[in-house]
Amino acid sequence: MGEETGAPTPQRPPVAPSAPPSVQMPMPTAAGFGDVLPTHPPLEQLPNLQFCLHSNPSWPEMFALAFQHYIVMLGSIVMLASFLVPLMGGNHGDKARAIQTLLFMSGINTLLQTLIGTRLPTVMNSSFAFIIPVMSIIRDFNSRAYNDEHERFVHTTRAIQGALIISSFVNIFIGYTRAWDKLFRFCGPVTIVPVVCVVGLGLFERGFPQVGKCVEVGLPVLILLTHEHTLQHTKHVNERAYFVLERFSIIFCVKIVWAFAAILTAAGAYNNVPEKTKLHCRTDRSYLISSAPWIKIPYPFQWGGPIFAASHVFGMMGAVLVSALESTGAHYAAARLAGATPPPAYVLSRSIGLQGVGMLLEGIFGAIAGSTASVENVGLLGLTRVGSRRAVQISAGFMIFFSIFGKFGALFASIPLPIFAAVYCILFGLVAAVGVSFLQFANNNSLRNLYIVGLSLFLGISVPQYFNEFTASAGHGPAKTNAGWFNDILNSIFSSAPTVAFIVGIVLDNTLEASFSDRGFLWFSPFNKDDPRNEEFYGFPIRVWVHEHTRSGFLHRLSVKGVERKEKKKEAGMGNPLSSFLLLLLVLLSSPVFFLTSCGSVPVDPRPRAFPSFKIQEIKEEIGWGCSYTVKIKTSCSSRRFTTDRISLAFGDAYHNEVYAPRLDDPSSAAFERCSTDTFKIQGPCGYGICYLYLRRDGWDGWTPEWVKVYEPHVSRAISFYYGAPLPNGIWYGFNHCPRSASSIGITDI
């Protein structure tokens, strides 16, 4: 039973300022109208997403979204294999098997990352950063004599295996020793912005330059995708059709243009064109369908034992570091587009260590390149506005399935590459734009910050372009010494746009003088320490399950003690990373429960406390009440049958957006009956992430709440606060997890 509680209207005492008052500047007004211009405060979590990280659409929609993720990531694998396998001496059958292996390992690594890595909805895909060291291995084996080209392909693949196996320990080391963690604690928004931007912009060669190789196939996809997302007026005509078109636009566009390309091929439009045009335009030139086996399961050392050579290993290490940095930039963008807070440094370190484990597996299974986080799939999160982790996990199942059943996988792999390139034009640009959004956390009016961002962006694009053009014309990179492995390391690093942008950005940001606030660390530092949302977004699935299903008893006390020990160690929830990884890997392999982990609410902290100095904020009449919150309160079975206590509620964010209900109890409607759950609709200002909630009891009944759950507008997941003990009389009692820097903007008792 419950009641409706409207927006409170009583006068509130002003909040005592916790920081020296600043000079109040007049609010800007629209010329000639006198209206106050809108302001856009920094948002740690991106709004207007239809489904965030831990919320899920219906099962049919989720499978369709997962299949769309599979289609998007497939293009990069086909591009990479189509480029490398012929140079290695492989035939069409070898290319089909190489694609199957890359696809299989992408599925395995995606599952690992979404379960025990970053826990973000990122797809792991083959990285183009490995082209330079692989090309060095190819040149090394070109000078040797073999009976046939297939034998050269096998020996080259075995050498790539050996280099991947040894170099993977670089990522394992920097990840699980927390070296990556320590490095990224020096990175603020000013450094992150150019890295994430060039993660998207630096891949421009895989965009329109590839579309131009078959304009009649690639350009229609680009036009259709752009046009579909500008048809806002059709939403009022047929809302369901608009919804389907918006969310599954890539599937529809690829299907239409692929059929168009098949018609052109069958009609003989490409019979008298150059061979290169046929390769890019025809739907039957890849020979993948005829060459792929019906069923083939990739297995360890399928090409033979690995070949280890020091020059190959050291050359591969540069690409391994580059792929780690590219993944980090993609993880920041994925967190933003999935509705999560920026990933803490310890989560990034954990993911890089696990990425090294994935590369070790790739070397064992015979992949021809290592992996990195797929930028195109990160862009797809924003295009569909669905950041569901489970959809990406299902897409990993599609990858594994189609890698085993080769004929079916080869069917989709035969899509002309200009179609994929047109899709990438949209997705890469979206990721680059997300990178720009991180600049809101720093001082945008600081010339120092603008200088760092601008120079990092320019050099991040210009330097790799010079290295790539030099390599294309001279046959080797600008770095050319007698040590080939040293050349590969330098050429790999400076051919990577995110790596160059990161080097320039982190050096300048940490050497040019600026205040902590101007650099943006006021916003980023809490995420590396004790922000309560870290556990919700990035905690291991076993912790989420324990918190959700053991609210009392022995297991709950164990989890609380574990949290206390971690806080004392200041490990930010990570503990011993290597031990945690090994233990969780064993548990995950033995139980499927984590793949279908419930997306219910997750508690913020199990320990409420008193806040005697908390004061209700003064009402700001000009803002108005723009949002409706659903609040559920469970009364403990140890409470009285009914209560005559007066119950008040207050919650809000760190930006003066506070929701206040002066009285929730109502004896006439039997609210707060023992063992019952009451639901309230409370109007209040729209916030940017609830970080505190207090209850106040005035009376002598000793009412005891079990828990309080708050559903924010347009968010299906609740924020839960567990009490389980009587409230003290006449005092605000609850939780406050706002960032410590929030005290400067008025939130007290932190």
Automatic annotation (TrEMBL):
Record-annotated membrane-spanning stretches: 67-87, 122-138, 159-177, 248-270, 303-325, 391-413, 419-442, 449-467, 489-508, 578-597
Main location: membrane
Subcellular compartments: Membrane
Domain of life: Eukaryota
Ranges annotated as biased composition (Pro residues): 10-20
Family: Belongs to the nucleobase:cation symporter-2 (NCS2) (TC 2.A.40) family.
Xref: NCBIfam families: NCS2_1
Protein name, per record: Permease family
Taxonomy of the source species: Eukaryota, Viridiplantae, Streptophyta, Embryophyta, Tracheophyta
